[in-house]
C-alpha cells in the first residue's frame, strides 16, 4: 500500500486523521456540563469508538509520570492524574477492531526489554494496531518517582533514547517469523535455537537473553516521535515512522515539513517513510461567524483568571498570586534563575529568554490594552481550525495538499464527546471530495498509514514511513 505522500498523478493526497485523548490540562473545558471523566473506562471507550466509526487512523494517548506542581502545590488541573497507558490501550484493543492504538512511553525512566515486551504484546492483542510515541524526560522532579532518579542533560537524553530504541528494535527483530512449530504427535514445540536470542551492549544498556514474545503482526510497532528541537527533528528523521508536531499555521507547517522531510535522504530514507502529523484543535459552528463566537467563549473557559496567573507564573518564574488577572502585567521582571516555580512541565523550559518575552508581552499588552488574562489568551495556543464544517474541511484539505502536513491529530476541548461533531459533519465532506477513506482498506496501523512491514534488522520502516514529554 502506498503512502499518502506519494499519490498517483492527478489523485489528491490522502489525509491522515487521528484522535488525541487529551489527558489532563487546560485544553479541556472542565466547566462544560458535557465534560466527562478522564479516568473512567467508558470515556476512553466512547472516544475510541467514535474515532473508529469515523475511520481515523489511530487513537493517541499522552502520559504523565508525576502530578505537576506549581508553587509547591499540585497544579489544580492535574489532580485526577492519568491511568496507565498500556492498561488503557490493552483494554481498548478488546472493544475496537481497526483503529490504531498509540501510547506515549518514556525512554528516560524505563528499560528496553520491558517496554519492547509490552508493545509486542499489545501488537499481538490488537492484531497489529500498536504504536509507540517515544519521549524523554528532562527533570529530576519526575525522576524522583524512579529508582534511577535525577535527570540527564539534553544530549544524553537523546543518546539514551536512540540507544533505547535501537535496543528495542533488536528485541522486536530477534524473532524473524514462524520459528515455533507445534509437533502434535509429541505434544512438544520445536523451535529455532536462535529464536528470540539477543545481546546488546552500549554505554546505556548491557543486556543478553531471549526475548519471549514472537514477532508481532506489524513486525514492529509503529514509532512516533514528538518534538521540535534540532535534536528532535534529527531523531525523527533517523528513526521515526511519524512525527507529532506543533506547527499548525500553513507557513510554519510548510517550513517544518520541508525541513524534516529534507533530512531523510542522509539517513537513507525517502519522503514516504515519515509522516508529519501536527496536533490540531477545532471549533465548529453552523456558520463561520457562529464558530468564531464559540471559539472565543471556549478560549475564555480554557483560561480562567486563576489559570491565567498560573500560566504567567511559568514565564515569570515567580509567585504572582497577588496580581489581578483582569489587571495589567506585573512591573517586576521574570526571574531567569535555574529554579522553576512549576515542576514537571516541559513547557516551562520552552521560553528560552523570559526577559525578552516579558518585554514583547508588555508592548503587546500596552498596544492592545490587554489584561493579564487577555494576554495569556492572546499568546497561548489557540484553536487551529474554526468555522463551519465545510470551512474546516476546506482548511484541513488545503494544509495536506500544500504539503504543510500529512494529516492531523485532533484534540477536542470536550472529552469524551467532543469528537462526535467532527466525525458527523467534517469527515463526510472529506470523504465526498475523495481525500479520506470511506472504509478501512487494511487491518493494521501500518496499513492505515501506508507503511510497509519492516524486514528484521532494517533500520526503519521501508517505504511504503524525541522530544521532551509533552504536558498534555
UniProtKB/TrEMBL annotation:
Single GO MF descriptor: monooxygenase activity
Domain of life per record: Bacteria
CDD domains: Nitrilotriacetate_monoxgenase (cd01095)
Domain Luciferase-like residue range list: 31-404
Record's keyword terms, sorted: Flavoprotein, FMN, Monooxygenase, Oxidoreductase
Enzyme class: oxidoreductase
EC number: 1.14.-.-
InterPro entries reported for this sequence: Diverse_substr_monoxygenases, Luciferase-like_dom, Luciferase-like_sf, NTA_MOA
NCBIfam families (alphabetical): FMN_nitrolo (TIGR03860)
PANTHER family to which the protein is assigned, alphabetical: ALKANESULFONATE MONOOXYGENASE-RELATED, C2H2 FINGER DOMAIN TRANSCRIPTION FACTOR (EUROFUNG)-RELATED
Similarity section: Belongs to the NtaA/SnaA/DszA monooxygenase family.
Protein name per the record: NtaA/DmoA family FMN-dependent monooxygenase
Organism: Actinacidiphila polyblastidii
Amino acid at each position: 500500500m502506498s503512502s499518502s505522500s506519494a499519490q498517483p498523478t492527478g489523485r489528491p493526497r490522502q489525509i491522515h486523521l487521528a484522535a488525541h485523548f487529551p489527558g489532563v490540562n487546560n485544553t479541556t473545558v472542565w466547566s462544560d456540563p458535557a465534560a466527562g471523566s478522564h479516568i473512567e473506562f467508558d470515556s476512553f471507550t466512547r472516544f475510541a469508538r467514535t474515532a473508529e466509526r469515523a475511520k481515523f487512523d489511530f487513537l493517541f494517548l499522552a502520559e504523565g509520570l508525576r502530578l505537576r506542581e506549581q508553587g509547591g502545590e499540585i497544579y489544580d488541573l492535574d489532580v485526577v492524574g492519568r491511568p496507565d497507558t498500556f492498561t488503557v490501550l490493552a483494554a481498548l484493543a478488546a472493544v475496537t477492531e481497526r483503529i490504531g492504538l498509540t501510547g506515549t512511553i518514556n525512554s528516560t525512566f524505563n528499560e528496553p526489554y520491558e517496554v519492547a515486551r509490552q508493545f509486542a504484546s499489545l501488537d499481538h492483542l490488537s492484531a497489529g494496531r500498536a504504536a509507540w510515541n517515544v519521549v524523554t524526560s528532562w527533570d529530576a522532579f519526575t525522576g524522583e518517582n524512579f529508582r534511577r532518579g535525577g535527570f540527564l542533560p539534553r544530549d544524553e537524553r537523546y543518546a539514551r533514547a536512540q540507544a533505547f530504541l535501537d535496543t528495542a528494535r533488536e528485541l522486536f527483530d530477534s524473532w524473524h517469523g514462524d520459528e515455533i512449530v507445534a509437533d502434535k504427535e509429541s505434544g512438544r514445540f520445536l523451535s529455532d535455537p536462535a529464536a528470540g536470542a539477543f545481546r546488546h551492549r552500549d554505554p546505556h544498556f548491557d543486556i543478553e537473553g531471549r526475548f519471549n514474545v514472537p514477532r508481532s503482526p506489524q513486525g514492529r510497532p509503529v514509532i512516533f516521535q514528538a518534538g521540535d528541537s534540532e535534536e528532535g527533528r534529527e531523531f525523527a528523521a533517523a528513526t521515526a515512522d511519524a512525527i507529532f508536531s506543533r506547527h499548525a499555521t500553513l507557513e510554519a507547517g510548510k517550513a517544518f515539513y520541508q525541513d524534516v522531510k529534507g533530512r531523510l535522504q542522509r539517513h537513507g530514507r525517502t519522503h514516504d517513510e515519515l509522516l508529519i502529523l501536527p496536533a490540531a484543535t477545532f471549533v465548529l459552528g453552523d456558520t463561520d461567524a457562529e464558530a468564531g463566537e464559540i471559539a472565543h467563549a471556549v478560549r475564555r473557559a480554557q483560561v480562567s483568571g486563576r489559570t491565567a496567573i498560573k500560566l504567567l507564573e511559568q514565564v515569570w518564574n515567580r509567585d504572582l498570586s497577588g496580581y489581578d488577572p483582569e489587571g495589567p502585567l506585573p512591573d517586576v521582571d521574570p526571574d531567569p534563575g535555574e529554579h522553576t516555580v512549576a515542576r514537571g512541565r516541559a513547557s516551562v523550559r520552552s521560553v528560552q529568554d523570559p526577559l525578552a518575552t516579558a518585554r514583547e508581552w508588555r508592548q503587546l499588552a500596552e498596544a492592545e490594552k490587554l489584561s493579564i488574562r487577555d494576554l495569556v489568551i492572546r499568546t497561548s495556543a489557540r484553536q487551529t481550525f474554526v468555522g463551519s464544517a465545510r470551512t474546516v474541511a476546506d482548511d484541513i484539505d488545503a494544509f495536506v495538499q500544500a504539503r504543510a502536513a500529512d494529516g492531523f491529530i485532533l484534540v477536542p476541548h470536550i472529552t469524551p464527546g467532543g469528537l462526535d461533531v467532527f466525525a458527523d459533519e467534517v469527515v463526510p465532506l472529506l470523504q465526498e471530495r475523495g481525500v479520506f477513506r470511506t472504509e478501512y482498506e487494511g487491518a493494521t496501523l501500518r496499513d492505515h498509514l501506508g507503511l510497509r512491514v519492516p524486514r528484521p534488522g532494517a533500520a526503519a520502516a521501508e517505504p511504503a514511513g524525541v522530544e521532551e514529554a509533552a504536558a498534555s
